[in-house]
Specification:
The chain is of the alpha+beta class. The protein contains 2 helices and 3 strands. The protein has a 3-stranded antiparallel sheet, covered by helices on one side. Strand 2 and strand 3 form a beta hairpin. The protein is globular.
Length: about 80
Amino acid sequence: MKPKPQLERYIKHDIRMALHKAGILCWVHNVDNRNTHTGLGVGTADLICCVPPHGRLLCIEVKTHRSGSVPNENQVRWL
């Protein structure tokens, strides 16, 4: 029997911990289906990072191996 895919929140946590160990600043862009306005726009990636030493932008959209877990149209446009 195949193991269940990991939940997205646990994958995000593991990625954030690895980025932290590498000295990369990382913020989680939490938006659910409510009318939440962060100023970053619709489709913004799940993790927004600043990579030293020059402050390069790194954006990561996290998806699981579950069927149907694909970026939506807004996410594809943003990425």
